Amino acid sequence: MTTPTQFLFRETGQADSGAGGQASAAVMDAGSAIHVRGLTKHYDSGFRALHDVNLDIRHGEIFALLGPNGAGKTTLISIICGLVNASEGTVLVDGHDIQRDFRAARQRLGLVPQELATDAFAKVHASVSYSRGLFGKPRNPAKVEQVLRDLSLWDKRDERLMSLSGGMKRRLMIAKALVHEPRILFLDEPTAGVDVELRRDMWNLVQRLKEDGTTIILTTHYIEEAEEMADRVGVINQGQIKLVEETRELMRQLGRKQLTLHLETPLAQVPETLSAYGLTLGDDGHELIYTYDGQGDRDSIPALLQALDAHGIHFRDLHTQQSSLEEIFVSLVRDGHR
């Protein structure tokens, strides 16, 4: 069975390189929306927020960046978006260096930050229109109206920001990030603290943006959303990228499956002759549980059923379930602290 740590080292190729589990510095992919190489951020206090981060994000994908609090997610996003200076390394946005060609790079980026920051006395329509102008875009009332309508803010267009609810302010931040028509959108915890309706509207909008070709990078603590939405997942911990993988492939490689047999007659204990299967009992002996690798040797299940039949152990029903992305994420982070 492949453990999270084995998978991590196999994917990054850094188990013995001393690069902290980072992806190897490959030749730049000219087709990358975001290209990061050797990115490091440390402070005068000695704290190192990022260490030798290497990452490529493809055009048109939804990329979920997962990590515990303090892992470096917001620092990485802030450097790419030009809000924080890196100590070392290179970042290209659609081929434009964020330092040498910062105007072109930033025009291609939209950011919905984790923290809400608004001018309390400004009005909704004026605030969104102003954000468009900051990126050198010409006036476009139709575009502003479209964005406000998409986010259910059109009816609030003449209200001052101080009067908006927390959920409406979150919608406003999204509108301000979208109004200059960026091709790459960062969503830093976009659904944190919002209601179910806004969360649903948010993900519907994300799907539409993807269909239009927008590259979307999101961080979220709602890992089930990342599992459902993201094309690829990156895990960051202690300032280092630990893994980048297709979501489905990650589930296949590291996911564990569980077969539960509901027995006709309860067992007091698992027969010693079946110990090779690692079976456990549940529900006071009424359930027999077999856990196996998601990459799985499916031949083991028919063999198990034959062995049970030979022991006179019969079942009336069975069901299977697979570990979630959240369980895989927790396992990866836990292994990273060992």
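The above is record 1. Record 2 follows with the same two-line structure.
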Amino acid sequence: MSDVNPGKLQAVIFDLDDTLRVNDPHAHIFFHDFVRTLGLNLRQDALHDSFRWAHEYWATSDDMLADLQAHNGMEDTFWQAYTRRHLNALGLEASKIDELADEVHQHMRGTYKPKSQLVPGALETLNLLRSRGHQVGVVTNRSRPIYQEIHDLELDLHLDFFITAGQVGAFKPQKELFEGVLNLIHLSADEVLYVGDNYFADVLGAEQAGIQAVLLDPFGLYPDVGSLTIASVADVVKLLESEALI
């Protein structure tokens, strides 16, 4: 992995989902809170465990790929299977999963209607980075174009570029995605800083391509991974002003 010299830094790239943009309420918290209303005594750390499980699952894991193939993409049966895996990540026994999976799936399908919104300080941070001469962009693991969503979030006037994994033809944490992005923006790995919330997809993926990664960890999910870690997007500017990247 290349160390970033702040004086050489040309671009700061952000993940989109759960980094610059969040759902309110968050799906995992909504899911967890509903399961608790069913009278289950979940472990104290069950929510954090399920967050970490989901991060690893969505990092193009073998389980995710197998589910997509088995259920012909993200059809309803995919989300039924995902609900079962999520309940397992919360620590439920197989018999309880069999008993509750359909009820939980139907509840999520029928009542989870989140609002998509920017995280606090997102636009201010992007503008401050640009005012200091850095390009700012988004790289997301989405397979489809995100033009409309970027516009709806009013990010389009504050970004120099936004790239989906589908455009590149590779997905986090595959290093080919990050190498493809570097080619598209005509920069080298040591000229870029990458910020994302998913340790498995964002940090390990960027590091495979030699890019300095920063883990956004507002819930304190990864206290022991040894990565540069921040609690909020606004902390990126503080990080650049510190000696942590030197």
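Residues 97 and 134 are 49 Å apart (CA to CA).
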